[in-house]
Amino acid sequence: MAASAKTATKAATKTKSAKPRRTRRTSRRDPLAITLLKKDHREVEDWFDEYEQLESDAEKLALFNKIALALKVNTQIEEEILYPESRGEVEDDMLDEAYVEHDGAKKLIAEIEAMKPSEEYYDAKVKVLGEYIKHHVKEEEQPGGIFAQAKKGDEELETMGERMAARKEELMAEFGSKPN
């Protein structure tokens, strides 16, 4: 009992929203592919919240660079692995919209990367990107969303998760070594 209370407290301190954690209390844990993506989502959401508290341009730039890297990697592994392998299991319209949302996020990331934190609209663009990502994540994670539909399908999400983790490592190294 004490260990589970300690774990719950630890989980609550890691994230500001207890809502996503409730999905883990079901009788079955999420498959690896979904677990990895949800972990990435929570990390980026926390970083957007943290960004709101920053005042220094140097700190804003450093944190935005972390956010941009994480989003680029996440969108690429979803587009290369999850979405194509979920076709037929997940509604086509939902996947098509996800690709379009990714494209919009990529364009906004590129605009922000071309700016300096001291420039007009920099903070506003980061804020809008955060709201955009929050909306996209909600559509992926909601009941009946992409993740729920993928879990109901025949695709082996544990094996897919292993491939996604390996690809994420490759992309983090590749993108992380490129200057913005």
Mind explaining what this structure looks like?
The protein is built from 8 helices and no strands. With 180 residues, the chain is mainly alpha-helical. The protein has one domain. α3 packs antiparallel against α4 and α3 runs antiparallel to α6. The longest helix has 30 residues. The N terminus is likely disordered.
Q: What's the short story on this structure?
A:
This protein has helices at residues 2-14, 19-22, 32-53, 57-86, 92-113, 122-141, 146-152, 157-176. It has eight helices and no strands. With 180 residues, it is mainly alpha-helical.
What is the overall silhouette?
A: elongated
Q: Quickly give the structural class.
A: mainly alpha
Helix content: over 70%
Largest sheet: none
The end-to-end span amounts to 48 Å
Rg over CA atoms, rounded to whole Å, is 17 Å
Helix and strand pattern: HHHHHHHH
Overall pLDDT level? 86
- Number of separate structural domains: 1
Tally of individual helices: 8
The assembly state of the depicted protein chains is: single chain
Q: Tell me the strand percentage band.
A: under 5%
**Residue runs with pLDDT of under 50 for 5 or more positions:** 1-27
Tell me the number of strands.
Answer: 0
